[in-house]
Design a protein that fits this description.
The complex is a heterodimer of chains A (about 375) and B (about 240). Chain A contains 13 helices and 14 strands. In chain A, helix 2 packs antiparallel against helix 9 and helix 9 packs parallel to helix 12. With about 240 residues, chain B is an alpha/beta fold. Chain B has a single domain, classed as Rossmann fold, CATH 3.40.50. Classes of the chains: A alpha+beta (about 375), B alpha/beta (about 240).
Chain lengths: ~375, ~240
């Protein structure tokens, strides 16, 4: 018999209470781990952007178009090295459940600016020559089994073509890869020229522009120059670095994450109080036993160690099961959400966070029982009868 | 085992607060119990018999006065030292056995040995021997709920003696038992006193206990005599 055996046996003394409390802890850590996975996806997408590229869109909203000649005007500004543009297509394959990030891009310059997309030279050349050609990510090619030369019908939920249909036909001309397998390998790019000529409305316009500045140019100066150039036109612009732009786009998700975070914190705190209450109740029930152990020579510190280990077992077990279930769920959900929110995964450091939380929570739950044990008067507890 | 552990209570005053009132339990109380004695403290409720026992065991501290066990004055020991001292020198037997329900009889008896440097095998051996002494070897693997009241008290006595303390402090150990079982427990304590030289101080209302004790102290008359003597000295 040693202290660990006693801790183990005491933990399972009230089995129903133990498992119900453990389940509560499990739910809390399931939420915590799941949110961490989603948060990781949002953060990863923002941090993979280039802070030296500028993004220019209509000052009112991203959904407002800019004239196609905006590109030439920006290109003429000092400090500008390359300018390209793109428009959002909003596509899906076969049905709306299979949403794809499809973008019409300036096929002359786009991939010069965005060299993180690794495309074999001959495929890129072929794409530039093929009006209906698309460049797809390796992940997407693997998912749907698309190969070079395949004809792929894609539909747009925004853009009708001149024949009055929302269905557009494309040919796979190139497949890109990225340096690290990431969220970016599920995109589709096609020629803006094909898009512009083919769409039924809003011709000769673009969605946004990407600008690369020269090495000695000042980012703020170029941003100011671009926006000043269009400030008194019908289409004023708003220019930011690409990082800020992506952060703003992700902001709606991040805000959502913050709300979820707050909910998780609330749930987590409540469950912590429940566990705390359980521990207090447990110790109160064992008041006489604690007094007897003190009488036998067990110090308050030893008894508190036992309570801490019991709390650690209860919370640790719940956290372990909750985290494992969340990891398995995220692995499954991550595949389904890959097109919408790619990169859902759990950083190894999250498990260190869980470990820290388990210890903090166990220590917190031990505080009140520890005070009770410290204040326990043996003679009063065991009865002053004479 | 130490054989010179006299218990000396010297000029003990003990009082406590009950609401706004101060209740005096003992005033200038003196008592010496020689090493190896079997003393029963008797008398009506409310005289502070258990309080004396708690003072001797370091479970409580006097308002003033000295509690000396052997050569050690324990009333001014710090809590940590007192806990350590108690583990090494005192065995307690209470009216309610307070056995841990999650441990077997063997486990309960081994419990105090968790504080010693004995290894697992040695702890098991000591506990088995203590159980044998109280006649509970055949119930070693039983849990408290599987034992009768008398058997539980025997296990509690085994737990009290397993670390071989010289002093056993018993607070109404037969209070919850029927006559026959109470006699068995008293005989067991008597055996521990005679065969192993344990100093036993027992608080009890059981008049039969007097048959086993080497000295019976009726606290009511003891306090009265001490008071008269004190008054005589003052005159």
């Amino acid at each position: 018999m040693n202290l660990l055996v006693l801790v183990w046996r005491n933990s399972f003394r009230k089995k129903v209470r133990f498992w119900l409390t453990c389940t509560s802890v499990m739910v809390a850590f399931f939420l915590l781990t799941t949110l961490s996975g989603v948060d990781q996806a949002l953060t990863a997408n923002v941090s993979s952007s280039n802070q030296y590229r500028l993004m220019t869109s209509h000052k009112i909203s991203m959904t407002q178009s800019l004239p196609i000649n905006t590109q030439q005007k920006i290109a003429a500004l000092p400090g500008v090295k390359k300018v390209s543009f793109a428009s959002w297509f909003g596509g899906y394959f076969q049905n709306e459940k299979n949403q794809l990030p499809v973008t019409a891009v300036d096929h002359h310059h786009y991939f010069n600016l965005f060299d993180e997309y690794i495309i074999p030279g001959e495929q890129l050349a072929q794409w530039k020559k093929t009006r209906t050609g698309i460049v797809i990510g390796q992940g997407l090619a693997d998912k749907y089994g698309w190969k070079i030369g395949d004809t792929v019908p894609l539909s747009s939920s925004i853009w009708m073509n001149k024949s009055g249909s929302f269905n557009w036909s494309f040919t796979v001309s190139a497949i890109y890869q990225t340096a690290q397998h990431s969220s970016a390998d599920n995109k589709v790019f096609f020629q803006h020229a094909y898009f512009d000529k083919g769409r039924a409305y809003a011709n000769d316009s673009l969605g946004w522009l990407s600008t690369e500045i020269t090495e000695n140019a000042n980012v703020d100066d170029v941003i100011t120059a671009i926006d000043l150039l269009f400030s008194h036109t019908n289409n004023p612009t708003r220019t930011t670095t690409e990082q800020v732009f992506i952060k703003e786009q992700a902001q709606q998700f991040v805000d959502m994450a913050m709300v979820i975070n707050l909910v998780v914190v609330a749930v987590f705190s409540t469950l912590l109080l429940i566990v705390c209450n359980t521990m207090i109740q447990t110790i109160r029930e064992r008041n006489n036993e604690s007094a007897m152990m003190k009488a036998l020579g067990f110090s308050a510190t030893r008894l508190i160690q036992g309570i801490y280990l019991e709390a650690l077992l209860l919370i640790g077990l719940g956290a372990l099961v909750g985290s494992i279930l969340a990891s398995l769920s995220l692995a499954l959900v991550g595949q389904s959400f890959n097109d919408f929110l790619p990169g859902i995964s759990i950083k190894p450091s999250h498990y260190l966070t869980v470990f820290a939380w388990v210890n903090i929570a166990a220590a917190f739950c031990t505080v009140f029982p520890a005070v009770a044990i410290k204040q326990l008067v043996i003679s009063k507890t065991l009865g002053d009868k004479a | 085992m130490k054989n010179s552990d006299n218990i000396i209570l010297k000029n003990i005053n003990k009082s406590y607060q009950k609401g706004k009132n101060t209740v005096v339990v003992h005033r200038d109380f003196n008592l010496t119990i020689e090493s190896g004695e079997f003393v029963t403290l008797m008398g009506p409720s409310g005289l502070g018999k258990s309080t004396l026992l708690h003072l001797m065991g370091g479970l409580d501290q006097p308002t003033s006065g000295e509690v000396i066990i052997g050569t050690q004055r324990i009333d001014d020991l710090k809590q940590a030292s007192l806990t350590q001292w108690r583990a090494e020198n005192i065995g307690f037997v209470f009216q309610s056995h307070h056995l841990l329900p999650v441990l077997s009889a063997q486990g309960n008896v081994e419990l105090p040995l968790a504080l010693t440097s004995l290894n697992k095998k040695q702890r098991q051996e000591h506990a088995s021997y203590a159980l044998e002494l109280v006649g509970m070897s055949d119930r070693a693997s039983h849990f408290p709920k599987e034992l009768s009241g008398g058997q539980e008290q025997r296990v509690a006595i085994a737990r009290a003696i397993v670390s071989d303390p010289h002093i056993l402090l018993c607070d109404e150990p037969t209070g919850n038992l029927d006559r026959q079982t109470a006699n068995e427990i008293l005989a067991l304590l008597d055996q521990l006193n005679r065969d192993f030289g344990k100093t036993i101080v027992m608080v009890t209302h059981d008049k039969k206990a007097a048959n086993y004790a080497s000295r019976v102290i009726n606290l009511e008359s003891y306090i009265g005599e001490a008071h008269n003597c004190h008054m005589g000295e003052n005159r």
